[in-house]
Amino acid sequence: MKFREINVGQNAELELAPMIDVVFQLLIFFIVTWQFARFERDMDISVPAAEQAENKDRQAGEIIINVREDGTIVLNGLVMEPEELLARLASISEAYPDQAVILRGASEAGFQSIVSVLDVIKEAGIWNVAFATTRPEP
């Protein structure tokens, strides 16, 4: 009895179209997430060092407010006046009462400018505020 060979002449081929689709999806994902992470940090700011600084897990939807050396307030890459910041934070606080805010003040910034931003945050009704620090270099 003679059996037929089923796989005679059929070579396995690698399909490139699905692989290219997956690579493009990954590329889009990384570009989009990089775009969001870019707004979080203002490279002109070097935050103060603290011995007890910790790297805490980030909460989803945290607002990061940067205060530069000259007292300029930056939120999501936009320079804002205190009145604009108050209006934006008040609307956010109204929608999300437990909204978290991270205040990144430059170590060379005046104490009064950081306290002024803290007053604006308090006036907007936000109570969940953290200050960004780094560990001192050995």
Enumerate the strands of the largest sheet in spatial order, edge to edge or round the barrel: 3-2-1-4-5
How many helices? The count is 3
Mean pLDDT: 79
Please summarize the sheet with the most strands: 5 strands, mixed
Commentary on this structure:
- The protein is of the alpha/beta class.
- The chain has a domain at 42-131: Nucleotidyltransferase, domain 5 (2-Layer Sandwich).
- 38% of the residues lie in helices and 15% in strands.
- The protein is built from 3 helices and 5 strands, in the order αβββαβαβ.
- The protein has helices at 16-40, 82-95, 111-123, and strands spanning 63-67, 73-75, 78-80, 100-105, 128-131.
- The protein has a 5-stranded mixed beta sheet.
- β1 and β2 form a beta hairpin.
- The longest helix has 25 residues, at 16-40.
- The protein is elongated, with a radius of gyration of 25 Å.
- The model has no long low-confidence stretch (mean pLDDT 79).
Descriptive key words:
138 residues, alpha/beta, Nucleotidyltransferase, domain 5, five-stranded mixed beta sheet, 3 helices, elongated
Task: Give the topology.
Elements: H1 16-40, E1 63-67, E2 73-75, E3 78-80, H2 82-95, E4 100-105, H3 111-123, E5 128-131
Parallel strand pairs: 1-4, 4-5
Antiparallel strand pairs: 1-2, 2-3
Helix pairs in contact: 2-3
Briefly characterize the structure:
With 138 residues, this protein is of the alpha/beta class. Helices cover 38% and strands 15% of the residues.
